Amino acid sequence: MSSDRRASWLKGVLDLLVLASLTEGENYGYEIAKSLAGSGLGQIKGGTLYPVLNRLEEGGLVSAEFRVTERGPGRRYYRLTPKGREMLAEQGGLWVAFDESVRSVLAKGGIR
Hints:
This protein is of the alpha+beta class. It has four helices and three strands.
């Protein structure tokens, strides 16, 4: 098992990370990706991020609004909905509990 598993791990939690990134206010895709990368998660490409944003929007967890800009192309801004906040609180709590369990097992194996 010498391969890097981070991409698989990220795939499992990216929805929550995107929701959490929107708790500070609305944002557009490129800035969301930049924020997540700045948190140490590595580069998240548009081909990964935009399907997540579309799925979250279809599920009513985020709302989106296209805005024309004076310079450059228009942008689609995403905002967390009340349903998205509820989902983040619920699923985020479950993720934290899962993380604690994983850390506990790894600690038994000498990994800290």
